[in-house]
Amino acid sequence: MKIIVTGSLGNISKPLATKLVQQGHSVTVVSSKPDKQPEIEALGAAAAIGSVEDADFLAKTFTGADAVYLMVPPKFAVADSRAYHQRIGRNYAQAIQRAGVRRVVQLSSWGAHLAAGTGGILGSHDVEGILAEVPAIALTRLRPTSFYTNMFSFAGMIKAAGIIGVNYPGSTRVAFVHQSDIAHAAAEELTTPTPAGLTVRYIASDERTADEVAQALGAAIGQPDLRWVPLTDEQMQHNLVSHGLPADRAAEIADIYTSIRTGALGEDYEQHKPTLGKVKLEDFAKEFAAAF
Which InterPro entries does UniProt cross-reference here (predicted)? Predict the structure, then answer.
């Protein structure tokens, strides 16, 4: 199969491209960075250097593909992240139609079924809607749960204060996912014949309480007293802003965690639980400790 992978050599796209190449597929990786081309080619894939902001480039790149994996590259500097997602979503939709692609796998997020109250995930909700309007395609929405790697952002707080402070309590049970499990699911979807229509696939690796997360990470880094400390929404936003995040981005992140606290983010996940992936919390804790 000829498969297009967007997302350059990111945490999901790189293992996904690697897996697809190993399976014998012809893989093209889209990247906006020319200096990534040698590394992409070293994987055995072709590099398409250009911007997802360019619908003409995307249409040309997608032409002849049997399947495409679509993700919206993070861009924290944009003034309006939701408008940015919508713009890239429309570019993808236009390119798919112009290129005649029939199999599409979109990286979305849990909580994307909601049209309000989920902060930065609202962009994924919008892209889901945009792609759903493309006729005659087999579209799979991949909805991974909370990324283990989000925990890396708390390393500074752990070092400075010996806590993980988030605006939901330690008793909250959360579904977490590792990027390798997402890549595995994406590879399955891209290479499995699917009739036209819409399917949704949730991806999770483990389900644990926030207190258990603190215990596992603390044990791994030699801080067994590491605690998960609940913050108010205001405290959460203030902390993010004080560490250099723009106020609107801070509010988006706080809203995501609020929706975890209320249960809204995971309500549809709870109705469509997947088989859990391979990477458990204790496995990730070793990765965290190595980076810490």
Answer: Ergot_Alk_Oxidoreductase, NAD(P)-bd_dom, NAD(P)-bd_dom_sf
Q: What's the predicted TM-score (pTM) here?
A: 0.96
Say whether 279 sits in a helix, a strand or coil. coil
Q: Tell me the CATH architecture of domain 2-146+178-203.
A: 3-Layer(aba) Sandwich (3.40)
* CA distances from residue 280 to 176, 179, 216, 271 in whole angstroms, order as listed: 9, 12, 11, 22
Q: Determine the Cα–Cα distance for residues 143 and 198; give it in Å rounded to an integer.
A: 13
3-state helix, strand, coil in the chain (%, to 5): 50, 20, 35
Question: What is 206-291's CATH number, 3.90.25.10, 3.10.620.30, 3.30.70.360, 1.10.8.60?
Answer: 3.90.25.10
Ordered alpha helix ranges (H), the chain: 13-22, 37-42, 55-62, 81-99, 122-132, 155-161, 179-191, 210-221, 233-242, 247-262, 267-271, 281-291
Q: What is the CA radius of gyration of the chain?
A: 19
Q: What is the pLDDT of residue 245?
A: 84
Handedness of CA 199, 200, 206, 208 (dihedral sign): negative
Q: CA-CA distance, 217 to 285, in Å (whole number)?
A: 5
**Sequence ranges of the domains in the chain:** 2-146+178-203, 206-291
Per-residue pLDDT tens over the stretch 215-230: 999 999 999 999 999 9
The per-residue pLDDT for range 242-269, each reduced to its tens digit, is 888 888 889 999 999 999 999 999 999 9
- Give the CA distances from residue 106 to residues 109, 131, 186, 233, 284, in Å, rounded to whole numbers and listed in that order: 10, 9, 9, 31, 25
Closest CA to 179 of 201, 203, 202: 203
